[in-house]
């Protein structure tokens, strides 16, 4: 066979079938397509060349089949990959989420939970109660030993017993001081950590573009309100210790509102203050309202601003000022946000003393009456809760259907609340006094209704709760109240009951509000 013939055979037998077979890459199709191509090629070759050359055609066909088996997957695989795979490049313009910050917040929260326990929270109370018990026991022992005194024996033995009692009390005081200092440091550290966590979570929330966390908080508030509504509806707690018809009101069953809510004309500049109406107004002054803002260091004031109606105090117009003194602070000016007006006279804590001041707006004169010498003042026994103390709230004042009261605490009563009736003469005189077991710094405010003292406590930023009562008629105390007050601001600096309209007047972070007491 000539070289020319062999080259023709190679072209016809190898190249042409390969070209045709690339039309399909599937091996099973290509396999049958190959044999069909080979058959046609062989037939054509048998026509143009000799029979012996036909044998070469089959020889080349076998070679082609072997090559095809190995080459077809190799040839077809790139095309198959190109038809099946899709590669996309995604570029995120947002910064990467700082997961390490979230982990740090979680770790800090766990540590705070471990450090702040209910046992630690009540340890100071247990120490104080133990100290009170030891002091009472010491007084009893001294009294008993004085009765049994027989001269020399009293000097030798009795003084030794008293000395041991004093040593035990001193140990308790040392332990109480150490515990208080430790908890104060822990409280400051926890507060700082909480602020850091709050700041970090606010930064992380910026990554929440769908506002999932904000919606979740709204849902939690709604759930909480619903739960409170259910509790109020299903509440079976007994009513206060007021006899039906006492003061003509019946039992207090709820607190509704706020009915009014308005920022004072001073804006948010003065978060501490007081407001209300005269509980026993003169003829023609029934619709007047008064407002006092602590304009010096959030602690002191020297004037009272009066308005002719509710609308004028809300709008901050048509007001009249009555000045106690031209200086602020000075002798007999106002200290602290707690005060009341009764009979055109303002009752309040005199500046830097444990005395009650009585400022007569008609005569513009001041008279005073001193409380017991161990009365706390200058933030010794203020209102407080776990998160803060309300400065210069040692003395609180309240009005009810029978007159004016001052609420305070003394060291002889171990910092517990004392109630004294103020006889509204000129000068004022302290009347009957009642002693309670309520420690003053566990409450945030007090008010009187029909001779019953009520105390509030801080639950959270949205809720204050009436939790305690003391009936001055029966001398009975209760700690099982759960009347919630829905706040609009975080803190309540002033709260007082007006017996004329049965409303609670509230000064809360520069806002004035009213709530209605519901009786049945």
Question: What do you see in this structure?
Answer:
By secondary structure, the protein is of the alpha+beta class. Helix content is 39%, strand content 28%. The protein has helices spanning 3-21, 27-48, 51-84, 99-115, 118-147, 152-204, 212-234, 310-315; strands at residues 252-263, 273-277, 289-293, 300-301, 303-307, 319-323, 334-341, 345-350, 355-360, 365-370, 384-385, 388-389, 396-400, 403-409, 416-423, 429-439, 445-449, 452-460, 463-471, 476-478, 483-486, 494-498, 503-508, 511-519. The strands form 6 sheets. The chain has a 5-stranded antiparallel sheet, with no helix packed on it. Strands 17, 18, 19, 20 and 21 form a 5-stranded antiparallel sheet that branches. A hairpin with a 2-residue loop joins β17 and β18. α2 (27-48) runs antiparallel to α3 (51-84) and α4 runs antiparallel to α6. The N and C termini lie far apart (126 Å).
